[in-house]
């Protein structure tokens, strides 16, 4: 098991790691639309928040030796399910043709007033 930490994504705000690599997979903790430099929640729209979340996920995946194109499962938590179509479009834009398995879960609220949080599981590229 290997703990992943990068300053290119928001630091963990609780008792957890940004990600853990185990058995050829990386398990990335849920990411909010937090700017890693300022620590502030960013984005006034769901599209802006999803874009920041995907950037955070990408940075953590890269630190683990993976990428968005290697995601096998994503879980999207939405504070307002009426935003699902727009969140889905922004998520699809970030992933292109890649379509990992995904669940969308409605929640009553998210930390810092976020609209969306996404966690992923991805394959890690083996070192040769």
Topology at a glance:
Elements: E1 2-4, E2 19-22, E3 25-31, H1 46-64, E4 71-78, H2 84-95, E5 101-106, E6 116-123
Parallel strand pairs: 4-5
Antiparallel strand pairs: 1-2, 2-3, 3-6, 4-6
Helix pairs in contact: 1-2
What does this molecule look like?
The chain is of the alpha+beta class. It has one domain: RutC-like (60s Ribosomal Protein L30, Chain: A, 2-Layer Sandwich), CATH 3.30.1330. 24% of the residues lie in helices and 28% in strands. It is built from two helices and six strands. α1 packs parallel to α2. The chain is globular and about 40 Å long.
Number of helices, where a helix is a run of at least 4 consecutive DSSP H or I residues = 2
Q: What fraction of residues sit in β-strands?
A: 25-35%
Rg, nearest Å:
14 Å
Low-confidence stretches: none
- Total DSSP E strands: 6
CATH topology, by name, is 60s Ribosomal Protein L30, Chain: A
Share of helical residues: 10-25%
Q: Give the count of structural domains.
A: 1
Question: Which homologous superfamily in CATH is the superfamily?
Answer: RutC-like
Structural class of the helix and strand makeup? alpha+beta
**CA distance, first residue to last residue:** 18 Å
Q: Which CATH architecture?
A: 2-Layer Sandwich
Major β-sheet strand ordering: 1-2-3-6-4-5
The description of the largest β-sheet is:
6 strands, mixed
